[in-house]
Specification:
The protein is an alpha+beta fold. The protein has nine helices and 19 strands. The structure holds zinc ion.
């Protein structure tokens, strides 16, 4: 029994890896997943937007809804000849499968589907509903993927209580870290206007470097917040400044700069933008500032989902996971605002997006039984 369960999850992973699903191309992965889920009684809906393929599957009509989520797209392999083996042909070495997407995140997808198969086989009358939300647009622009599916579900009044994302959250060993939120990311594109002039006649010119310098100093000095139990303090970083026409006796007429905030739940993008404008306006400087929001911060508060995930991890590893908000953004930023508790639990992330990406076979098998345990804790009445 154990052997066939194990080979089930690995053979599904291998099947997914052979689909060359470079973002945003799903390359048939979702069809494979939908076929497996349909056999379990899931109603599978394809929700394409633009050139992005999305799958939403649900088993049951009642609440609460426990949803597993992830993406089938992968980043390009990079230089194929630097790989030790074909990046789209799963290759086993030292107990690990090497291939693009093995860890990020086809391993998580295979673990989910097999966990659901085993859970439904044993608890076909589970309470609530099971759902699966898969996109092919996580590694790319992320505009026509999870964001659009969540909007469509909200528009028809469909609520997801709990979501487990299979993104590779672990650092040293499987389950050592579970992500329970992410910082927000907000970028500013700045233009400071001045008047170009001769360096010897500064009173006839208006040097934007001079007018921006004290603002920049203040932006660096501000203590935006002190963070909280789950977030480090908000950070402000300048990534680019350009001015000058490349001539030693001419002062520039314009300065452009880009900066980025990684911010905690103390702020929303509105409140943060407002504070920045107050600082600029206090300096009496002629500027234009455009903003780009990559994602608001989100945090899942302690509750049933976090405790179920922690228990499932601890039962398999002997150690409770660290609850973290580190790392970059993920599709959790689109799921959480609908009022869903979101947690990310997946394989070790050390090799993701790299040459020779790989995942331990034993980890994917264990991850699958962690997912199954989460289903049992949340959807089987005791
Ligand atoms: Zn990923």
């Amino acid at each position: 029994m154990a052997m066939s369960e194990n080979s089930g999850v690995i053979s599904l992973l291998e099947e997914l890896i052979r689909c060359r699903s470079i973002t945003p191309d799903d390359a048939g992965c979702q069809q494979i997943l939908a076929n497996r889920l349909r056999a379990l009684g899931f109603v599978c809906e394809s929700m394409p937007f633009g050139d992005v393929t999305n799958l939403y599957a649900r088993r049951g009509d009642a609440g609460p809804v426990l949803c597993f989520a992830g993406h089938t797209d992968v980043v390009p392999p990079g230089a194929d000849d630097e790989w030790s083996s074909d990046p789209f042909e799963p290759t086993v070495r030292d107990g690990a499968i090497y291939a693009r997407g093995a860890a990020d995140m086809k391993g998580g997808l295979a673990a989910m589907v097999v966990a659901l198969e085993q859970f439904v086989a044993e608890h076909s009358e589970h309470r609530g509903s099971l759902a699966v939300l898969i996109t092919s647009d996580e590694e790319g622009r992320a505009r026509d993927g999870t964001l659009k599916v969540v909007e469509a579900l909200q528009a028809r009044g469909e609520k997801i209580e709990w979501c487990v994302l299979g993104e590779p959250s672990s650092e040293q060993s499987l389950g050592d870290i579970v992500r329970i939120g992410r910082r927000g990311s907000l970028s500013g594109m700045l233009t400071v206007n001045g008047v170009q002039g001769h360096v010897a006649y500064p009173h006839l010119a208006d040097n934007p470097i001079r007018s921006f310098a004290p603002v920049l100093a203040e932006l660096h000095e501000v203590e935006w917040d002190q963070g909280n139990d789950f977030f480090p303090p908000t950070s402000f970083q300048v990534v680019d400044i350009q001015a000058g026409i490349g001539f030693p006796n001419v002062t520039p007429g314009e300065l452009t700069a880009r900066f980025n905030f990684r911010y905690s739940t103390v702020w929303t993008h509105d409140s943060l933008e407002k504070r920045v404008h107050e600082i600029f306006d206090a300096h009496n400087i002629d500027y234009e500032l455009n903003w780009h929001l990559s994602g608001e911060p989100f945090l899942t508060k302690p509750g049933k989902l976090i405790s179920a995930v922690s228990v499932a991890v601890e039962q398999h590893t002997g150690k409770a996971p660290e609850l973290s908000t580190g790392g970059g953004t993920s599709d959790g930023r689109f799921i959480s605002p609908a009022g869903t508790d979101v947690v990310e639990l997946g394989p070790v992330n050390a090799s993701i997006h790299k040459i020779d990406e790989h995942v331990l076979i034993a980890d994917i098998i264990t991850l699958s039984s962690m997912y199954r345990r989460i289903c049992e804790i949340l959807l089987v009445a005791d």
